[in-house]
């Protein structure tokens, strides 16, 4: 169990760092859509343009610090900041699905906090270097698994929702890939993602998660502009899916347990 917990910890830690390094890069580049999010707080475009590289640099430094010296304070900041930045999208007029689809951004730091433990902490503990608990326990692993199930469900349903409402950015991707009927492709992808999300929430299995990981990594490669940074920013999504895959029992073990349960039940009868 300890080895499994450590694998999940390092996966989520690296994934969260990817997310905020990729997000910060857009601040330095000067992604224009950010100006709409600054406007939510009453910041005009001129000042927003000046703040973008500063905020982007902070994001990158937070991501790097998570790789070098992770603390609960950093994880708490990343979780809160991830929620705020994701909420800026629907508040600025974008669909609420944009907030849900970014569940990996804020959900992965939250899961890391759960994994590292929050009971009986004092102020100093929030600034000490953290790692996975040396005595993780089945209950803590179950809590982490449940967190990841909800996160993967949300990010799949959110992205599927954007497909079903025919988000322009996704239509551009499908056009770039050579699809003539982008709307039909978007609807098929949306139905697939909604179905997969519900299955993950109810009863996730490793083979499905392996398919979803490949699906997510592959589909995020096709943004028309700044492909590398867009792909990096979705690190929380990949990490949540891979982390859940690691948390679940191997399919063979699960199958043997199921057969054993059936045999025991038959013997009793």
Distance between the termini: 34 Å
Percent of sequence in beta strands: under 5%
Low-confidence stretches: none
The helix-strand sequence is HHHHHHHHHHHHH
Q: Please give the count of helices.
A: 13
Largest sheet geometry: none
Shape: globular
The overall strand count is 0
Give the class from helix and strand content and strand pairing. mainly alpha
* Mean pLDDT across every amino acid position: 89
Relative helix content: over 70%
Q: Assembly type of the shown chains?
A: single chain
What is the CA-atom radius of gyration, in angstroms? 20 Å
Concise account of the structure shown:
The chain is an all-alpha fold and 269 residues long. The chain is 77% helix and 0% strand.
Task: Please provide a written account of the structure.
The longest helix has 28 residues, at 2-29. This protein has helices at residues 2-29, 34-39, 45-68, 72-91, 97-101, 103-116, 137-164, 168-176, 182-202, 206-219, 227-233, 235-247, 251-268. It is built from 13 helices and no strands. Helix 4 (72-91) runs antiparallel to helix 6. The radius of gyration is 20 Å and the shape is globular. It has 269 residues and is mainly α. The model has no long low-confidence stretch (mean pLDDT 89). 77% of the residues lie in helices and 0% in strands.
How would the blueprint of this fold be written?
Elements: H1 2-29, H2 34-39, H3 45-68, H4 72-91, H5 97-101, H6 103-116, H7 137-164, H8 168-176, H9 182-202, H10 206-219, H11 227-233, H12 235-247, H13 251-268
Helix pairs in contact: 1-3, 1-6, 1-11, 1-12, 4-6, 6-7, 6-12, 7-9, 7-12, 8-9, 10-12
